[in-house]
Amino acid sequence: MNPTIELLKSHRSIRKFTDQPVSCELLEELIRAGQAAATSSHVQAYSVIHVTNPTNRVTIAELAGGQAYVATCGAFLVFCADMKRPTEAAERTEARVVRGMTEQLLVASVDTALMAQNVAVAAESEGLGICYIGGIRNNPQQVSDLLGLPDHVFPVFGMCLGYPAHQPDVKPRLPVEAILKQDTYTDDREQVAAFDATMHAYYQSRKGGTKQSDWSHNLTPLFDTKLRPHMREFLVERGFEMK
């Protein structure tokens, strides 16, 4: 297999980092690589906040659910969906700009995710480790206030970057047969059952036999409660009205 595919298949979330800093030159190159990602209609509906203030990083770590590595990693980035820049640019051409459309929210969110994944792959190609931090959506208003985010911009997730201080195993993924379907959607319960067995074995080996779980059971906390019910109201208040 070629080196790019091998790199992609070797991804692990890194949560322990050395003290080695990430240089500004390297960080800028990673952002340039991120900008090369596909973007809907060339809108480029994203902004990235490099959080360097130590106090703010500690605060974000707490707001994200006590994820201490937000404060200790070599660099911490917040990836923001940004419809402020493109709508204002269009407005300066005297266009009658319509804001708050659901499609604008989708475009900005997808653009941001694509851009961030390019950054992640580029970082790993340089020997860095990364960890996405979706926990900033636990308290999105506080994070927005801390970072001075204006209307029509919202924080989608953070990303820890740094030189790894550990090398965890690659976590198994669903079998490709469950994901790749031909012509029509097909039932994948057999593949899910097989994957549950795989994940049970993985947790047994990783946790010294102390974790009795599998993929399906790990999903329970995500779906048996209303996850982050504040997000809709928050997005509407930021100008993403989902009209």
From TrEMBL:
EC number per UniProt: 1.5.1.38
Family annotation (SUPFAM superfamilies): FMN-dependent nitroreductase-like
Molecular function via GO: FMN reductase (NADPH) activity
Root EC class: oxidoreductase
Coiled coil: none
Annotated TM spans: none
Domain of life: Bacteria
Domain Nitroreductase: 9-163
Alphabetical UniProt keywords: Flavoprotein, FMN, NADP, Oxidoreductase
Annotated InterPro entries: Flavin_OxRdtase_Frp (IPR016446), Nitroreductase (IPR029479), Nitroreductase-like (IPR000415)
Pfam families: Nitroreductase
Family stated for the protein in its record: Belongs to the flavin oxidoreductase frp family.
Protein name: Oxygen-insensitive NADPH nitroreductase
Species the sequence originates in: Halomonas urmiana
Source taxonomy: Bacteria, Pseudomonadati, Pseudomonadota, Gammaproteobacteria, Oceanospirillales
Encoding gene (name): nfsA
